[in-house]
Structures are given as structure tokens and as C-alpha cells.
């Protein structure tokens, strides 16, 4: 039985986004497509501590450890733009926003977890 076309597209997208990460889960390159970028940001978001607040230096340090292409500022800004991360008006304190991950993001995280085994 053939896979439905929608499942093939979704599987291709998941593969495309997962290839942006190393087997250990580090983002190695920024996806070209906006929808893929958003999916990659959900993966980064899933690595942020769920509770508490962090200053900008702490957030920067965390983001630096999760990617290899040296643009943690882009990641931080994009996480805030998608309301996955919020900061105080003065930009000193950041908090991870609680969300339910989209199923596609969960699937990418699972692929990365399986790849690191």
C-alpha cells in the first residue's frame, strides 16, 4: 500500500529539518525555508529549561552550546519572535514560554534522540 502524498511531504520535511542537526542534536546549519526554521526553533526551544528565569548571558551561553554556526543572537531573536521565549522590556531577563510542541517538532526531536543512540 502506497504512502499518502501528505505523509511523504511531511516525512521529507522532517528529514530535511533533522539533517540540519548533528546526531548529538546540535544545530549545524540554518534551514533555508521559513517553515523549516520554525520547526528547528521548536527543537531548540525543547532544550531550554522549562522553569525559572535567565539573564541574557545565560541564554546566550545555552544557545551557543546547541549550534555550530555562531549566530546565537538570531536564535534568541527568533525564539522571542515566535513567543517561545519572552524577555523583559529591558531585555535583561528571559523566560521560556510553556507550549505544547507541534507533532512535527516532536517527531524531529524523536528522530534526533534515536540518531544519538
What does it look like?
The chain is mainly alpha-helical and 117 residues long. It has one domain. Helices cover 52% and strands 8% of the residues. It is built from five helices and three strands, in the order ααβααββα. Strands 1-3-2 form a three-stranded antiparallel β-sheet. Helix 3 crosses helix 4. The chain is globular, with a radius of gyration of 15 Å. The termini are far apart. The relative contact order is 0.18. The model has no long low-confidence stretch (mean pLDDT 88).
Strand and helix layout:
Blueprint: H1 5-18, H2 34-47, E1 54-55, H3 56-65, H4 72-81, E2 85-87, E3 93-96, H5 103-115
Antiparallel strand pairs: 1-3, 2-3
Helix pairs in contact: 1-2, 1-5, 2-5, 3-4
* Principal-axis shape: globular
Structural class: mainly alpha
Spatially, the strands of the biggest sheet line up as 1-3-2
Alpha carbon gyration radius: 15 Å
Uncertain stretches: none
Tally of individual domains: 1
Distance between the termini: 30 Å
Total number of beta strands: 3
Task: Give the biggest sheet.
Answer: 3 strands, antiparallel
Q: What proportion strand? A: 5-15%
H/I helix tally? 5
Integer average pLDDT: 88
Order of helices and strands: HHEHHEEH
